[in-house]
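Please, structure for the following, as tokens.
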Amino acid sequence: MRLLARRWQALTTEIVELDAVLDDLTAELAPTLRELPSIGTQTAAILLLAAGDNPDRLEHERSFAALCGTSPIDASSGRQRRHRLNRGGDRNANAALYIIVVSRLRWHEPTRAYMQRRLAEGRTKKEIIRCLKRYVARQVHRAILHDLPNISHARPPALAA
């Protein structure tokens, strides 16, 4: 039992050290992204991973939204105009956007006001969260493009074969 406790302590220490390294890396490489409300170390890292090794390939914010699975899919029928959730894309990035939106709904006053306004218009909470995830994906895309020189500079040179 003592061996297990020591192993747990060692792993906990390693996690804390790696979190500090990740915090330093995301703060250095993507300061604009980290300045956005409700985006912390973990969510910034997940979104940077979703952008991949070549984030400049995502020329338009709609391509980043599709990559994250937040692009709307038309589900209209007759006179009813609706969009449904996109089940595709990078699910980790989608989950990170969801965490950001839920955090903003709790602490970010403009987001809370948006939620109240859309609820008064008759939208469901799921629809509003879908719209907010798309909005956050747009903000994240702009921030990644702004931080692109930092990210590009940090890339290791290609290995010669």
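The chain has a mean pLDDT of 87. Residues 2-73+83-154 form one domain.
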